[in-house]
Amino acid sequence: MHDPLSKTPDEEIGIRAFETKKARAVETATSRMRHGMGDSWDQLSTQQIEELRWTLGELWAYVAHGVWDELHFGLLSHDEINRIVVLGAQIRRHERPPVEVLNQIAELVSSKA
Fold first, then answer.
1. SS3 letters for 47-89?
2. Are 85 and 48 in contact (CB under 8 A)?
3. SS (H, E, C) 16-47
4. pLDDT of residue 112
5. Taking the model in full, what pTM does it have?
6. What is the Cα–Cα distance from 23 to 74, expressed in whole angstroms?
């Protein structure tokens, strides 16, 4: 008998494709930030970078892909990147509604255009 909660192969492929696209987008954004920050990138801890990458993944999943493509991650300052890390931590700790925080992050990044 078929378990109604199990995923079909097509659903699994769709989920994998989504995760792959998200990972690629996060890697591109992270690379642009790293390049834009230059040597100051090294001041970020491994934990901060992991939090940043998680937050970028959440942002990618939230914003329209046309919007994502227009975000200028490479223009963010060290302080702005730290702000994104802090905001992402607020989502993880359920301190604020995720939509509110993600909108704030999107506004921060889009203001760099």
1. HHHHHHHHHHHHHHHHCCHHHHHHCCHHHCCHHHHHHHHHHHH
2. yes
3. HHHHHHHHHHHHHHHHHHHHHHHHHHHHCCHH
4. 80
5. 0.88
6. 17
* Nearest of 105, 113, 39 to residue 78 by alpha carbon: 39
Give me the amino acid identity at 8: T
Distance separating alpha carbons of residues 28 and 23, to the nearest angstrom: 9
Q: At what angle do helices 9-37 and 46-62 cross, to 10 degrees?
A: 130
Between the alpha carbon of residue 66 and those of residues 63, 79, 84, 99, the distances in Å are: 8, 26, 21, 18
**Per-residue pLDDT reduced to its tens digit, 71-91:** 999 999 999 999 999 999 999
How far the first Cα of the chain sits from its last, in Å, is: 54
| Burial class of 88 by CB neighbour count within 10 A (0 to 12, 13 to 18, 19+) | buried
Q: Does the pLDDT of residue 100 top 70, yes or no?
A: yes
Asked whether the CA dihedral 44, 47, 50, 56 is positive or negative, the reply is negative
